[in-house]
Amino acid sequence: MHKAPRGTFDILPQEYAYWKYIEEKATSLCQLYGYQPLSTPIFEDAQLFTKTVAGGTDIVDKEMYIFEDKSGQELALRAELTAPVCRAYLEHGLFNLVQPVKLYYIGPAFRYERPQFGRYRQHHQFGFEALGDADPALDAEVIEMAQQFFYSLGLSRFSIQLNSIGCKLCRPGYLEVLRQHYASYTDQLCPDCKARLVKNPLRLLDCKKTSCQEIAKTAPKIPDYLCPECQLHFQSVQKYLGAMSIPFQLNHRLVRGLDYYTRTVFEVEPRDKGGQSTLGGGGRYDNLIEELGGKPTPAVGFAAGLERIILNLKKQKLDIPALPKPDAFIAYLEEEAKIEAMKLASELRKAGITVITATGDKSLKGQMRQANSLGIAYALILGEQELSKRNVMLRDMRSGEQKTIPLAEIATRLLNDIKQPEQV
Ligand code: AMP
Question: What are the tens digits of pLDDT across the range 367-382?
Answer without folding.
Answer: 999 999 999 999 999 9
